Amino acid sequence: METTERADIGVFGGSGFYSLIENAREVWVETPYGSPSDKIALGEIAGKRVAFLPRHGKDHRFPPQSINYRANLYAMKMLGVRHIIAPNACGSLKTEVKPGSMVVCDQIVDRTSGRQDTFFDGPVTTHVSFADPYCPTLRPIAVDALRSLGIDTHERGTVVVIQGPRFSTRAESKWFQSQGWEVINMTQYPESYLARELQICFVNISLITDYDVGLEGMTPVSHHEVIEVFKSNNERVKNAIGKIVAGIDIDADCSCHHALEGAR
């Protein structure tokens, strides 16, 4: 299962965002955890080797609860990736977090169930700290990159991850809103945690596509509407990723790269 392919930075594409690297070369990466969601596109951005993987598959064949997150993350690890940028479509739980804005999350609440969310099933018990889920080195780089492009950017926020594929009821959405959380999504867990277990730096960019139904007066959103908003923002997201890639020092050390120290 070894691969001679190499990349410095990985990118997971979100809903409706399946084109990033021009003149990319696509490869399959076989992992001990099965196949990733699709072929991985390899190429260069800002002089750095980048690997791009659409987390749902190119034809969106994998809904959030069916994604093989372990294979996706392990494929990046096998390529030598040490930094991952993860844009995705999200709903807003606060009126001030407006559609079209972006949130660089710093916290996460997991409300999923039954997902395979660890590489460490034994025999050695491994407890990895997840107090601060997103990379402290990549987050400020992402915030600066987004703001330099004139994007309405929230430099922190809590994302609550629901199981999917259904959207929330009004009661659930109001409950999440009452907790003071900003963002709702279906894929950020276990993607973010598995990166930590592999000692990979991981940053999320939440593109807000809609207000969730718990906010007063909001009408239920459709998947089609989410995709359309994401598509209309593709160029902004691509520009932002380019800026973030350019700002990453691929040789710099980070606490994320030492996540297993003291975990056993």
Description:
It is a single chain. With about 260 residues, the protein is an alpha/beta fold. The protein has one domain: Rossmann fold (3-Layer(aba) Sandwich). Helix content is about 25%, strand content about 20%. The chain is built from six helices and eleven strands. Strands 1, 2, 3, 4, 5, 6, 7, 8, 9, 10 and 11 form an eleven-stranded mixed beta sheet that branches. Helix 2 packs across helix 6. The relative contact order is 0.21.
Primary descriptors:
single chain, alpha/beta, Rossmann fold, eleven-stranded mixed sheet, 6 helices
What is the alpha-carbon Rg in Å?
17 Å
What is the CATH architecture annotation? 3-Layer(aba) Sandwich
Mean pLDDT equals 92
Order of helices and strands: EEEEHEEEHEEHEHEHH
What is the percent of helical residues?
10-25%
How many H/I helices?
A: 6
Return the structural class: alpha/beta
Bulk shape = globular
CATH class: Alpha Beta
Within CATH, the superfamily carries the name Nucleoside phosphorylase domain
| CATH topology-level name | Rossmann fold
Strand content: 15-25%
**Straight-line N-to-C gap:** 27 Å
* Tally of domains: 1
